[in-house]
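User: Mind token order:
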Amino acid sequence: MDMFNIWDMDRVNIKVKLEFLEKVNKKIKIKFKSQSRAWEVIYPNKEVPFGSFKSVLKPSTYNNLFVPLETFIRISDVLSISREEMQENITSYKTAGGVNCIEDPILPILVNPVFHMLFAHHIGDGGVTNPMKGRLPYFGYRQYNDFYRLAYIKKLEFIFGKICYKEDYLKKSTMVYCPPVLSTLFFKYYKFKVTDFLSDIARIPTFILNSEEENILAILIAFVIDEGHVDSTELVINLKNKSLIEDLEKICKSLKYVCKVTQGKSEIVKGYARLHILREGMKSFYKDYLKLNKRYPIIDLGWKGEKIKLSFKIVEREIIRKRGNDKIIIDLLDKEQLTVNQLAERINMTRQGVRYHIHNLLNLGKIRLLDSKQLNWVYGV
């Protein structure tokens, strides 16, 4: 499994355990006699002032401040302290000049299916903020659903450790930001530039398409969450990026899911490519998802998973090919005004099936179209 160490990151400031700092100071005293002599060896060109170097070695500094990782790497190397030991003693870190720190960090960082799922989220409902010159780019994930927005943060913390967001962070915005110090790892691993994450041109790298099944399944699940919907007895993902849809089709074929790709024709979806995971493919997808969810509970389809389960009941419904559907629809509309989508969900029928019955009942004068101004027309008795 691939992984990142703290020294693989860019512009990192850290805090360390005080007992480790004490060990470092003792080693400096034994080897160099004084901090000034240690500074002269570690920074022979004096690119870091002695005062700054000295403050890194003061316990009081860590009450309020983070210190440059680069300085600690140099100190550890000179004192023959392994980088792995130094990494084990980091209590928190953040982007130099950044706000959100990572506490109780998970180091080294493992590239697993959840990491790949985050990558897909950054394409699906994500975007890259490319700040002023000299600052690092970072991801923002726009998600209006509270469950999925919180799930994104949980995935970040599953991979990296506790991220210190403000207490009211989720109450004020539907956009969640991935700190720059973490965002840079996605650019590095997938060899992407900032523009490569744009949903209109993004692609799944070939080495990922050819990787383990768990990795590509996690990517597909992310796109189902961000861009997919259950359309009666099939799962559909709509994207303007036809090449990306074809990448997802390759994933489905690798996983042996029955699927097809079509081009959107109506005005609403004109110009969109559509990946259809057909009924049998959706059953296999859901079965594989449950296995992955058991291993990584953080990978959760949420309400869309429940919608998939509900869709399976459509074909199991006893009266699907028997008389009685018209009466059920009339009885429901007699109690409340509903759309085709709402009726389909209530009686476990495909939308196409509901439209067929609606058309007949309208012609017979048994129901009425009450509101045609909305995107989904409303019917009643």
In short: The chain has 17 helices and 17 strands.
